[in-house]
Design a protein that fits this description.
- With 210 residues, the protein is mainly beta.
- Helices cover 0% and strands 36% of the residues.
- The strands form four sheets. The chain has a four-stranded antiparallel β-sheet, with no helix packed on it. It has a four-stranded antiparallel β-sheet with strand order 5-6-7-8, with no helix packed on it.
Length: 210
């Protein structure tokens, strides 16, 4: 092809209008990338990167935020974790629900996307859901994490919870809509107390130069 041009390679056809932007997902079988997209009828589609439809599945609602890929069984096979307004779900490569991950959760506004933490990069996942002023954490077996003590907040969040590790210490960051940044430990206890409020942008907190 001549330089500085674009060429249409493949078409991806849905049964209804697109609800949200398509996303790339890793295909653990052939080491390529697949395309996942949801339509306005809440049907989720998984295509190959050449436009072949693998499957489609009707969901109970719109996916909030991005789909997170996880390896629950630590065998290199990836699953898709996400939440809708009132469900927390994990699907396998074939679009089937991974038991027991099909939980009904609160739909109290505002609803934040699913946060997935892998503290030690050993695939012992923690799934943290935030809606309204409440927090709910599950482990990789689908059980509520009893050791995480922070169940409610004074103010709702404006971003999903964020995990950062600095100097071998874990920090979970909670950006509240009153301008307070809560910095907590794995158990939900305050690790650092900030006295000043922050005029947050629309960006999430991130680690800068360690």
């Amino acid at each position: 092809q001549s330089k500085n041009t674009t060429v249409s390679q493949y078409n991806f056809n849905l049964d209804a209008a697109v609800l949200s932007a398509p996303k790339w997902l890793k295909n653990h079988r052939n080491k390529t990338m697949d395309v996942v997209v949801q339509d306005i009828n809440n049907v989720l589609y998984l295509f190959s990167n050449t436009g072949t439809l693998f499957w489609k599945k009707e969901l109970p609602g719109k996916i909030i935020g991005d789909i997170k890929q996880v390896d629950l069984y630590k065998n290199g096979r990836l699953q898709m974790a996400f939440r809708t307004e009132d469900r927390f779900m994990i699907l396998d490569r074939n679009g089937e629900i991974v038991p027991p991950f099909n939980f009904q959760v609160s739909d109290e506004l505002p609803i934040q996307p699913l946060a997935v933490f892998d503290y030690d990069h050993d695939r012992k996942y923690r799934f943290l859901l935030s809606q309204g002023k409440s927090l709910l954490m599950y482990d990789g077996n689908g059980k509520k994490v009893s050791g995480f003590k922070l169940k409610s907040l004074q103010y709702p969040l404006i971003q999903p919870p964020k995990h950062i590790r600095l100097d071998a210490k874990d920090f979970i960051l909670l950006q509240q809509n009153d301008g307070n940044l809560r910095v907590i430990s794995r158990t939900g206890k305050d690790r650092i107390r900030l006295n000043e409020k922050i005029n947050f942008s629309h960006n999430a907190v991130f680690s800068y130069l360690n």
